[in-house]
Design brief:
With 224 residues, this protein is α/β, with parallel strands linked by helices. 38% of the residues lie in helices and 14% in strands.
């Protein structure tokens, strides 16, 4: 069988033209931060969200929800939010303080994050023993003593007053901006605590914090 040449009248028809596929839009990587607290953590991470979503909208999108719930319920709420998302979250960060919650609840939340993680959605247990203010203090000095969290507030107030920025309050909206210049030191100090706490459960790792894991993940996008 011989192939006939195309008719001249057919040469301009659309179906004869080479197909040009439209370039696919690359979706950003979606992150969800669900916090136990409704003031301190949302304010701190909210400052990061504003920077990241403004500067890198095509690469990463950050959403924050201050749940105001206990540790076990916090994970379930985070899981429900991830499941109901139309976009799908690649990373879900469950941020909580150990406070005076039962040890088994504290550890179970971290365990659930490991067990429920998949290739599509990774859950991260971002705990602080005893509270996120430890992470704030690590920006200024290394702390290894297991002090009660009530001692953290006076220490932060003393530091902030020395810098001329007033007293520490849990709902301060400018803590990220104040702490940012010392972020590298905080990460290094938190990693030192990690080494000391190797093999310990979250409830036994006192003092200890995993906030630096979240901050390090976001740090490439935090350069304004």
């Amino acid at each position: 069988m011989t192939l006939k040449p195309h008719k001249k009248s057919d040469l301009d028809k659309n179906w004869m033209k080479a197909r040009r596929d439209k370039p696919k839009k690359i979706q950003p990587e979606y992150h969800l931060i669900v916090t136990e607290g409704t003031e301190t953590e949302p304010a701190y991470f909210g400052a990061m969200k504003d920077i990241i979503n403004r500067a890198y909208p095509d690469r990463i999108e950050l959403n924050i929800h201050g749940a105001g719930d206990n540790t076990l319920n916090l994970f379930q709420k985070a899981k429900q939010m991830a499941a109901s998302s139309a976009n799908g979250y690649k990373h879900v960060w469950v941020v909580y303080d150990t406070d005076d919650f039962p040890a088994d609840h504290i550890n179970k939340t971290a365990q659930l994050c490991d067990e429920e993680s998949t290739e599509e959605t990774v859950y991260h247990a971002i705990w602080s023993n005893q509270c996120i203010e430890l992470w704030f203090l690590l920006h200024f000095s290394f702390m290894q003593s297991d002090l009660h969290r009530s001692t953290y507030w006076p220490k932060l107030t003393e530091i902030l007053n020395a810098q001329g920025v007033g007293e520490y309050e849990k709902n301060r909206a400018d803590m990220y901006q104040i702490l940012f210049p010392y972020m590298e030191a905080a990460i290094a100090n938190a990693e030192k605590l990690d080494k000391i706490n190797v093999g310990k459960s979250p409830s036994a790792a006192a003092p200890g914090t995993k906030v630096h894991v979240l901050v390090e993940k976001l740090r490439p996008y935090l350069k304004e």
